[in-house]
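One such given next:

>
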Amino acid sequence: MVKNNKLFILIIVSLIIGVAMGGIVHYQFPDSIDVFSKNIKLLGTIFIRLVQMIIAPLVFSTLVVGIAKMGDMKMVGRVGAKAMAWFISASLISLLLGLLLVNFFAPGKGTSIKLEDTSSASELLENSKGFSLEEFVKHVIPKSLFEALATNEILQIVIFSILFGVALAAFSKKEAKPIIKLLDTVSHVVLKMVTYIMWTAPLGVLGAVAGAIAKHGFEVFTLYAKYLGAFFVGIVILWLLLLIVGYLILGKRLFVLLQRIKSPLLIAFSTTSSEAVFPKMVEELERFGCQPKIVSFTLPLGYSFNLDGSMMYMTFASIFIAQVYGIDMSLGEQLTMLLVLMLTSKGVAGVPRASLIVVVATCAMFGIPPEGIALILPIDHFCDMARSMTNVLGNALSTAAIDKWESKPEEHHG
């Protein structure tokens, strides 16, 4: 816990230094903005790539071992059903909350934001053109385990690992023991690597924040004040809902859980990557007292299906673009959009800037100019900070809740 607190303090200090450095470069050295932003962001890139390097072996080894140790396929089915029920409920609530707030605050109506150049959105527009049912299936089902491991496709790795774990559990304990022991050792070695890599997190935070502030400056907050204000009200409400549900299930242990995951929350906020804290989350949830087999099964699923912050943002951003273009959508159209987002969002889990790609694809589907995504790109980094942190909280709570439901009272020992 002392080490955890030291890391937390270092991240806070790095966050403050990053904001200060970015602000100085933006206002005092405007000619150096592009060079500084490009170079300082390398610190964040180094940290995230170090983490991405260990995600695939960690997901595969822990998930296979977790399922094999469960042994009982009824338990696998029961835990999976509870997890999916939580994920679908949380996703619908998050999408609906975004829909309600964007209609209530109407940040896109009478906005001073101008769309002069859409070139910044060209990459996203290209990425979303091939979005279809065929692409969804290709994204979910792996063609090759090694391709999935190489490209860090968490959902594909999860599918293979579940099948492998179920098959392994069908063997006798004597036959399965060597493979389980090997993969168990691999997962512990990878978790040991996590403790080393996490000490580079403060540098990653500094690089990511300094680069964003240097590029956009502080004026971006005043220009998008209405949009940001409404969005952050939504994030606060979503956090309150999640914490209330968490307290009803976990009781006072909720505060122990929050203490445990404070560093992952801050890293996700600063680096805009919930994926970057996946290995640390495995470690902290096990230290909290969750059973390793529940953590290794539920958490990877959550990273594919339970992105509460991103879900809320999708409806919010889509309707915002419609408002800017003066497109009035009926209640029926908006609810249809909500259901479409519920399905399509699962097809791009783990894809960089997945939320924006889904927004572009959905806008095109409902006759909203998809190039309108360029309107929100300048502020997206700062919204992504809140989205990522909310995704981490949602996954921590879902894993802890499912562990509580699957455990006997005496098994809880944080």
Summary: The mean pLDDT is 86. Residues 33-70 form the longest helix (38 residues). The chain has 19 helices and no strands.
